[in-house]
Every structure is written in structure tokens, then in C-alpha cells.
Write a structure and sequence with these properties.
By secondary structure, the chain is α/β, with parallel strands linked by helices. The chain has a domain at 108-289: EpsJ-like (Ribonucleotide Reductase Protein R1, domain 1, Orthogonal Bundle). It has helices spanning 2-72, 130-140, 145-159, 173-177, 204-210, 235-240, 247-255, 265-269, 272-275, 282-286, and strands at 89-92, 95-103, 108-109, 214-215, 224-225, 288-289, 294-303, 306-316, 322-329. The strands form three sheets. It has a five-stranded antiparallel β-sheet, covered by helices on one side. Strands 3-4 form a two-stranded parallel ribbon. It has a two-stranded parallel sheet with strand order 5-6. Helix 2 crosses helix 3 (145-159). The chain starts with a helix and ends with a strand.
């Protein structure tokens, strides 16, 4: 009996030992998992910090380039300058920094729709409203007429300062309150181009189609730098002349530029294709310039299959001081 009791006690002891070992293994596994999680978080945070500071280093590089170009040529901004070079890649640490800089006067400023100042038109003067020009731009790049008219109205209602519907195609608070997730029209200038996706009538397909032609400047001015508009975006010139300038003629004018662009606006307006249009209104002529004070830089840092993106907007003020006025992290455009 004593023998059996002792054997039974040994069996219980063995079970207890096994339970203790199992418990230790579980605790050890849990600690290992937590340690791996903490290490992963630490590595990710380190990568994020490296990406952040590397991208900001690229921002400083763009700042220096813009400053140098301005010192070299205060009276002209053109595609032969350093800021406009494409395909530049710089090694930074264990990664690579790349990016591009866009002149925000080489695209249609959607905030200009807020002022939409229509001008009178007579038999000898070519003129039109900003909204009409935007409609022409949309139609020229292949957007249907009805959609073009609707977006010109709804975007104007989005950025103007009142709560009144522009016309039967416009949209204000009542239209947006009825959404599955209701919201209100801001009735202020856009600060991020992705706001377009919230505007009545906008779709993903249309957004992708018009995105290369539109941008945001923190003002209601519509100014186009004739030296930085690419030939691929010649539709901007067609729109600026209210559709009177054929798209092929617009491309021909842009292709005729010297390497450093037009010497002045008068040189541009003297092009045969433009003089053939007749007398232009002062409003149309005032749209064009050969300088720019607003730029957007898209900077991408890649390392270890990870990517970090920052978008920075630069503006030069009336005191000739350049500054970053907005910064967005992430690749959303």
C-alpha cells in the first residue's frame, strides 16, 4: 500500500512539474511575442522618422533650388531651370530620395472659380468668365458637356463665400445634407485637391481625368505661366481663350517656345495663332505671365521596400521671401 501511495504521489508531482513547465513555456512565448511586437514597432517608428527627416531634407533641397533659380532669374520662371528637372534621384542613408516640382501657375486654379467675374462680350472683344473657361477646359479634355457644366457650377458653389446655389446645376448645403454621411459645403477656398471628391457630380474617373490640369493656389487669381505649361496640357491655353484657340494651335505655340520660354507676354501674344483671333480683352491678356510665386513639391523617400511621401507647397510673398505654407504627409493626390 505504501508503495502504491508513493508511486501515486510521484505521478502527481510529475503532473505538477509538467504544468509548471507548460506555464513557463506559455509565459516565455508570450514574452517573446511581445518583444517581437515591440521590436517591430521600434523598427517601424525608426523607419518613419528616417523617412520623415529624409523627405524634409528633400524639401530643404527644393527650397534651395527655388532660391537659386530666383537669384539667377527674377523676371522669368521656365522649364529649363533647375527646379523643373525630372528624374533626379539622390541617395540618402540607406534609401533613395526622388520627387518632382510643379509650378502652380501651369494649371487651372480651382479657387479662381470663387470670384467668377464675367465680362461683357462684343463683336471686337474676346472675353468670358472663369467658370466658362473651366467648362471649356473640361470639354477639351473629353468630359461630357452636361458634366462639365455641372462641375463648373458645383465647384464654384463649393469655393464661393455664399450659400446661394449658382444655378439649377449648382449644389449647396441642402444637396450635401441628403448624403448617407451628411456634410455641409465649406463656402471657402479649397486647401486640398482631394476635396474635389466631396463635390456633387465628381467621380473617381472624372477626378483622374482632370487632376493633371487643376491645382490650388490660396487666392482667387487665375494666372497662367506660359513658360511652364507643358505641351501635353495645351488644353489650358484653349480654355484661357474660351475655346477660340484650337488645341493644335495651342500645342504649336507651346512647341515654338525657346528653351527659356517667351521673353515676355507680348512675345507670346504676338504668335500668329493668337493674333488671328482678333482683339483680346484686357481680362484675357492679364491671365498670362512668365513668372511664378507658387510651387508644389512631391517628395518620395524609399528604403527597405518602404515608402514615405511628403507634399509641400512653397510661396514667395511680396517681400520676395520664400516659405513653405502647407505640408501633407502621404501619397494622396
Amino acid at each position: 500500500m505504501r508503495y502504491l501511495s508513493r508511486k501515486k504521489q510521484q505521478g502527481i508531482a510529475l503532473i505538477v512539474v509538467m504544468l509548471v513547465v507548460a506555464l513557463v513555456v506559455i509565459i516565455a512565448a508570450s514574452m517573446t511575442g511581445r518583444l517581437q511586437l515591440l521590436m517591430s514597432r521600434s523598427i517601424n517608428q525608426q523607419a518613419i522618422q528616417q523617412g520623415l527627416w529624409s523627405a524634409l531634407a528633400g524639401e530643404q533641397l527644393v527650397y534651395n533650388v527655388l532660391e537659386q533659380d530666383y537669384k539667377d532669374s527674377k523676371d522669368s520662371v521656365h522649364l529649363a531651370q533647375l527646379w523643373a528637372r525630372e528624374g533626379m534621384v539622390f541617395p540618402v542613408g540607406n534609401g533613395m530620395l526622388s520627387g518632382e516640382v510643379q509650378d502652380l501657375h501651369s494649371c487651372f486654379n480651382l479657387n479662381a472659380l470663387a470670384q467668377d467675374s464675367s465680362s461683357t462680350t462684343n463683336s471686337t472683344t474676346k472675353s468670358g468668365s472663369t467658370r466658362e473657361q473651366f467648362e471649356v477646359l473640361l470639354r477639351t479634355i473629353g468630359v461630357e458637356n452636361y458634366i462639365a457644366e455641372q462641375l463648373a457650377s458645383t465647384i464654384k458653389d463649393w469655393v464661393d463665400s455664399d450659400s446661394l446655389v449658382t444655378d439649377s446645376l449648382g449644389a449647396e448645403d441642402d444637396n450635401y445634407r441628403g448624403k448617407i454621411v451628411p456634410y455641409l459645403a465649406p463656402n471657402s477656398l479649397m486647401v486640398n485637391i482631394t476635396e474635389l471628391m466631396a463635390v456633387e457630380g465628381m467621380t473617381g474617373a472624372i477626378y483622374r481625368k482632370i487632376r493633371p490640369y487643376v491645382c490650388l493656389v490660396p487666392s482667387t487669381d487665375l494666372r497662367l505661366n506660359i513658360n511652364t505649361i507643358s505641351t501635353e496640357h495645351a488644353a489650358l491655353l484653349t480654355a484661357a481663350f474660351n475655346g477660340d484657340l484650337d488645341i493644335e494651335d495651342a500645342k504649336s505655340i507651346l512647341n515654338s517656345r525657346d528653351q527659356e520660354g517667351f521673353s515676355d507676354v507680348a512675345d507670346f501674344l504676338a504668335a500668329t495663332e493668337i493674333t488671328a483671333l482678333g482683339t483680346l480683352s484686357s481680362e484675357i491678356q492679364a491671365q498670362f505671365e512668365i513668372t511664378s510665386n507658387d510651387f508644389r513639391a512631391l517628395l518620395i523617400f524609399r528604403a527597405d521596400e518602404q515608402e514615405f511621401t511628403v507634399q509641400s507647397v512653397f510661396q514667395r510673398d511680396s517681400q520676395e521671401k520664400l516659405a513653405v505654407i502647407s505640408r501633407q504627409f502621404g501619397a494622396i493626390q
